Structure formats: C-alpha cells, structure tokens
Amino acid sequence: MISAGIVGGTGYTGVELLRLLASHPEVRVDCMTSRGAEGTAVADLFPSLRERIDLIFSGMDVDHLSRCDVVFFATPHGVALEMAGALLAADTRVIDLSADFRLPDTALLARWYGLTPPDEAVFKQAVYGLPEVNRKALRCARLVANPGCYPTAIQLGFLPLLEQGLIDPARLIASAASGASGAGRGAKIETLHCEVAENFHAYGATGHRHLPEIQIHLERVSRQRVGLTFVPHLAPMNRGIHATLFGFLREGISEAELNALYAARYVDEPFVQVLPLGQHPATASVRAANTCQLAIFRPQEGDTVVVLAVIDNLVKGAAGQAIQNMNLMFDLPETMGLEALPVTP
C-alpha cells in the first residue's frame, strides 16, 4: 500500500485529490496539511468525505511528510520549490500541482512567477507530467511537475498536428474558457457568484503565465519555434475547460483524414477520446472524470484547422492527472483509481 501525503488539502485541488485517492485500491492517505485548518477533521470541513477519510489536518511538518512514499503539493506557487529537496533526500517522491517545476528555465520562472529555486539541482530533476508525451520518463521520475489545466487541454489538442508537421507552428491560436474553480478556493471579488453568474469575459489577453509553459512543451514536440496567441476566459460554471484551437495547414488534408490522424495518435491513450466526425465536445461530458475529449474540423475546406478540446480542470487538469502520474511512478495500472465515469448532469 502506497502511503500518500497532501500539502495544501483545503483548496479545490486538494479536496479533489482526496476524493479520488479515497477510492484508489493501492493508496492510503496518511497526512493532510493545512495552515488555516490545522487541528480540524477533514470530514468536518468536507462532509462529502465523511467515513471515507478519517484524518485531521496537520501543520507543515517535513519529518512527518517524509515518512510518506509520495507527497502531492496542492499549494500556491513557491511552496513545493522550498520543500521538495528535503523530501527527495528522504526518498519521498514528489508530485507538484503548482507551476514551480513546469518551466525548464529558471529565468522564465523568475519572470513569470517571481520565483527562484533554492537548489537548481533539485529543480532540474523535475519531469513534466503529461503522460501522453512523457510516459517513459515518468515511470522513472522522483519529482513530477504536473501540467497546468489550460496547457493540458491545449497541448493535447495541438500535438498530433505538430508531430506530423501539418500546421505552421509560428501561427497558433488558443481561445480557452475555464470554470471559476480554476481560480482557487480563496475569496476573491472576481469569483463571487454575482460576478461570475450570467457573465463571460476574457482576462490575461496581454500574456497569461501559462503561455510559456505551453510554448516550451509544444516546441519540444515540433522541434521548431512556436508562436502562440493564447486568450483565456472565465466561464459561468464551476468546473471545466473548453479550448478552441486554430492552426493553419501547410498542405491539403481532408477533415476525415484529420480525424483519422487524431484517432490513430490517441488510440492507446486511456484518457483521451477523439469524437466521431461532426460531433462537438462539451465540458459536461467530462465533468469529474480524468478525460480529454477532442473534435477536429476544417471549416469550409479552407486552410484553417479547428480543434475543440474539453477537460475537467480539477481532474485531467490537476488532481486526476497527478494520480495518473503517480500510477506510472509506482508501476501501477495507469487507470487505477481513475475509472469513474463523468457525472451527468
């Protein structure tokens, strides 16, 4: 049985980790930390976990966490950066759901997040946790950088086209919308019910901090410079991401051939579904599941290809993908603990 700890257990991502791990047959959650809820029973804060998680939130004790086989960080940026080294030294594996290790360049980390790694050797150990690209490396990883939610949907949408050199990598466009849970559980005016309900708006149009993560990892696939225009939006829903992606074709290829290309690329991927021709994915179709649904279109048979990608930002975009990575790290079936079907409605 794998002993797991979660740092930052009171946020949406932390409780999603708990929900999923509570049903994992090979994992026992032994430690949950929270600065604000220390001494509080998990079930008192989250009644949905009553009689499934019998834990009390504890303080940030590295010695206690180091007795776990794996520690998940569901924390604000900067926390894992400071603590990962001590845990790795104690032979505890680390999966970080923040952005601390997603960028391979420390200068970019400083520019976009204002962070500097205390130990660059630890920083360089991180493996980027997109299984559909890095599965082999993840099986040997000790420190995993779990991808962001927008980057997960956008990368899975563009990958087959870039791998085959079918689109111009210098002219990519991503317009993506997320539910309010993507902003975290902390109280903010912009995510109050009255601000989100009956409303839809863009933000970060001049440069969202997920942009360099997406560009860098797409460049590793395309082996060319990637030029990406990325505009995120806040949608009036609790959870989910819908990404509409645009690429410019370098050669003539039919919509049916494009769909077949995607189907072949993801045929062995347990958590990526390519929809039949003409169908449009919806966020409700993947709610609470570790699934990405994709659909491919070539409007008016022109030179533009449109890819639609949907995920649950808290599952495939965060906690579910983290558990998928954990399964790979511990040589477990990749789908273990993640077999639940989406919730409808």
From TrEMBL:
Signal sequence residues: none
Enzyme active site: C149
Keywords: Amino-acid biosynthesis, Arginine biosynthesis, Cytoplasm, NADP, Oxidoreductase
Cellular component per GO, a single term: cytoplasm
EC category name: oxidoreductase
Biochemical pathway: Amino-acid biosynthesis; L-arginine biosynthesis; N(2)-acetyl-L-ornithine from L-glutamate: step 3/4
Name under which the protein is recorded: N-acetyl-gamma-glutamyl-phosphate reductase
Organism, scientific name: Candidatus Macondimonas diazotrophica
Gene: argC
